[in-house]
Every structure is written in C-alpha cells, then in structure tokens.
Amino acid sequence: MSHVDSGIANLAPLEQAREQKAWYWYDWANSAYTTTIGTVFFGPYFINLAENAVGGEDGRFEVAGFSLPPDSLFFWLITLSTILSALVLPPLGAYADRVANKKRLLAILAWTGSFFAALIFFATGDNWLLAAVGIVLGNLFFGAAGVVNDSILPLISDEDDRDRVSSRGWAFGYLGGGLLLVLNLGVYLGHEAIGLDEGLAARLCMLSAAVWWAGFTFIPYLRLNDHPPVEVAHVEGNALRRSFGQLAETLRDMRKYPMALTFLIAYLFFNDGIQTVIASASVFGAEELGHSQTVLIATILMVQFVAFGGALVFGRLAGRLGAKRTILIGLVIWMVIVTVGLVIPAGNVPFFLALGAAIGVVLGGTQALARSYFSLLIPRGKEAEYFSFYHAMDRGTSWFGTATFGIVLAVTDSYRPAIFALIAFFVIGGLLLTRVDTERGIREAGNDVPRVI
C-alpha cells in the first residue's frame, strides 16, 4: 500500500539552490573591479596623473611635511583605504546583522562603490585627486559590500554544502573577472586600431569594470530573499546606535569562541602571504626574471582562468577531506611556490607560466575555503559582524607581507630572497591553523557539525 504524505512537498532545498545561483553572480560582478582596476590599469594610470601634476617622475609631492615621489603616492592611497576599511567595517557588520533586507544593503554598497570607481574615468591630465577619491572610496565600499555578501553565505547554505557553495562563487568570480579582463586588454592593446589614444583606452577599460560591477549586482538584488535577523542580542537605541552597542558586546563575547579567534589569526598570516605574492608577482617577473609585458599579461590572464578550475577542485577536495585539511594542502603548495621563486631561471617563459599555473590552482581554493570554514566557527545572528572582523583585520594588517618583502629586498637587493621570505607567513599561518579544533569550534558557535570536517 503506497504512502502519501499529508503535507506539502518541501521546496526549501530548491529555493536554497535558486538563492545560491543568484549569490554566485555577486562574485562575478565585483571581481571585475579587482582584476581590471585594482590589478592591471589603475596603478600605472594614477602614477601617470601624479607625474603630470609635479612635472615628471622626478617631481615631488609635499604632504604633511613629507616629500613623496609620484609613484609612492599610489601606495599611500592603498594604505589609507585599508585603514579606513579597518575602522568602518566592524560597525557596518553589526548593523548588517540587524537588517532583514541584506540584498538591498549589498546592492546599495556595491552601487556606491561602482559610482566612485566610475569617477576615475573623468580623471584626466593632472587630476590625480579625483582618481584618488575614486580608488579610496571605491575600495572602501568594495570591502563593505564584501562583508555583507560573505554574511549571506551561511543564510543560503547548510553546513554540509558551505564549502561547495563558497568555492563555486569564488570560481564564478574568477571567470567573470577574467572574461572582462580579456576584453579590456584587447581594447587597450589595440587602441590605435580602433581610434583611441592610450589614456582614453585605459579609462574606458576602468569604466567598463565599474559598469560591470553595478550591472551584475542587479541579479542578486532581484533574486535573493530577505532573511530576518536571528538571535541578535537586545541593545537599546536606533539601528545605528544598536550596531555600535552590539559591536561592543561582541568584542566582550569573542572569548567564548577561541577557535574562531585562532583561525582569524592564522588567516591573517597566510592570507597576507597570498596577497603579497600576488601583488609582487608582476614586478618579480619583470625586474628579476626579465619577462616582457606580453608574457606578464598572458600570465595574469592564465592565472584568472586556472583559478576558476582550482576553486572548483578545492571545493570537491574539501568535500572528501574537510576544509581545514584542504587549506593546509594549499598552504604547502604556496610554500613550494615561493621556494621555486628562489631558484627559477631568469628569462625562461615556460617555467614562469608553470609557476603562474600553480598560483592559479591554489589561489581561489584557499581563499574560498577560508571563507566557508570561518562561517562554521561563528554564531548565528552575527555573520556580518564576524565577517567584518575577517575583512577588517585582513585589510588592517595587509602591510605586514609587503613590509617584509620590501625590507628583505632592501637588504639583499634581490627579489628572490624577498619572495622566499614570505614562506614564514604560510608556515606560521599553517601551524596556527593546526591548532584549530574544528568540531569544538563549530559546537561552541552553536552550528551543526558537517559530515566531513
């Protein structure tokens, strides 16, 4: 005799899958800003504006009693944006946890960031100040939207499929950012054939990234659901005052989640190593190994598309081994990469491309799994707040790796020991990660323990 359920079929898994697909599109949207503006075009274009303002590369800026060359001004701007992020993101996270319509908050932050990014298009001649405003506030709102986006991950995925969802989102991001970068490099390298001067071509490429970011953000905005706040402690006052009150409460309560804190410190080290390798790879390839701009551009593109596959592979591997073990495997590969940098022969293009491919394999995977692993260690109702610390501490300490790289370079006058010195960040980060008791951390946070940890 057949059994017929009296209730309505459970459509929650289908709805959850639909939300996950919508969420992937924000990674697709915002990665264009990182690749086209942050990685390739803004730095050289801004330095050119700054040099125009002081009469050439030998000119100096006088800022607060300091005499700065034009090219160093760019790095000070990035430092300023990271400091602002470290100050702004934690109270924003506390506020976001008290908002049901997180998709609207995500969209507002993203559209505001894309507006400031678009301002760079109008910075011409010697107008470096407008470009500076564009990049500092663009970076700030990029980070703010990232906090809200990451906090949505635990709301649309169960503990068992968190790694898969995070990895797919990250992979989708690399694919989107890579596709737009291919188009933009085609426009930039062929600017004469289509009747554009070099500066206008660069500005159009950066404008396209701002439009891409804003346009594709409409997909998660329209397709994600509202998720009412849960288990948020009562604090008096309006939403803004409550957010600062909740922030103070969380700072006091963080001692209840020692595994989350241990992972945060581990992440600061190994992520700083990753970011410094990425930031210095082009300079290392050009100055130490003597590769042409064409080889460097080809390598950047290859890394984007290899990272797409790498994130998916790491997501599958985490399904078998657990996220912690898979991240540790990734950190060992990062150690091998910086060690190879010590001995890789100059001028050998295949070796350099192979090194780029290795970076691509672990780049997306380690970062995607770090996001999903951390989400298991944080309490319900405080997702955005904890992810704001995740982003703010990352940004606030992101100069450790570059400072180490710069000091070793200054002492040795060689990029090889400078890149190898970053192995310390992967070793320390890995050792700290081994100290995280995953099951204990998940239970302390009140989350369900996945089948594979």
Automatic annotation (TrEMBL):
Protein keywords: Membrane, Transmembrane, Transmembrane helix, Transport
GO terms of molecular function: transmembrane transporter activity
Superkingdom of origin: Bacteria
Record-annotated membrane-spanning stretches: 73-93, 105-122, 128-148, 169-189, 201-222, 261-283, 295-314, 326-345, 351-374, 395-412, 418-436
Subcellular location: Cell membrane
GO cellular component entries: plasma membrane
UniProt cross-references to Gene3D superfamilies, sorted A to Z: MFS general substrate transporter like domains
Signal peptide: none
Name of this chain's protein: MFS transporter
